[in-house]
Specification:
The chain is an alpha+beta fold and about 140 residues long. It has one domain. It has 5 helices and 8 strands. Strands 1, 2, 3, 4, 5, 6, 7 and 8 form an 8-stranded antiparallel sheet that branches. Strand 6 and strand 7 form a beta hairpin. The longest helix is centred in the C-terminal third of the chain and has 12 residues. The protein is elongated and about 55 Å long.
């Protein structure tokens, strides 16, 4: 399975307002890099709050909404119930990179951004690309 990235909804909202990303047809594009991610709704499970323990071992994990609902979870805004357990969650989106990192570096979109001066020095990895993006946008 390809690595996925969690984009918190609040952060994604800030990026959209700032014009740093484009969201279209279920795909997120980092505009200054041209990197695209297919999105699926998900949550980051922050903590168990009912005091009954984390029998499902979800705290600290990111799961898709579909996966959690298939397990019987009820999600409402920043809360989740699963059986007798209650959790605080951070809603957002799981992004799966479109194509490989090498394909992205050689893509026509990235070549055009580099020619226009928008894309800087080539990042060394997907993680490096995201770290640079975060440094520019936060």
């Amino acid at each position: 399975m390809q690595n996925r990235v969690f984009f918190p909804q609040a952060t994604l909202d800030q990026w959209i307002v700032a014009g740093a990303v484009d969201l279209h047809a279920g795909e997120l594009t980092l505009l200054d890099e041209g990197r695209r991610y297919r999105l699926e709704e998900g949550v980051h499970v922050l903590r168990e709050v009912s005091g009954g323990g984390d029998a499902a071992q979800l705290v600290g994990r990111v799961k898709t909404r579909a996966h959690l609902e298939a397990k019987g979870a009820e999600l409402v805004e920043t809360s989740m119930l699963l059986g007798e357990a209650a959790y605080d969650v951070d809603p957002g989106w799981l992004g799966t990179p479109v194509g490989t990192f090498a394909e992205h570096l050689g893509s026509e979109v990235r070549k055009k951004l580099r020619a226009a001066g928008a894309a800087g020095e080539a990042p060394a990895s997907e993680e490096d690309l995201l770290a640079r993006f975060l440094a520019r946008t936060t």
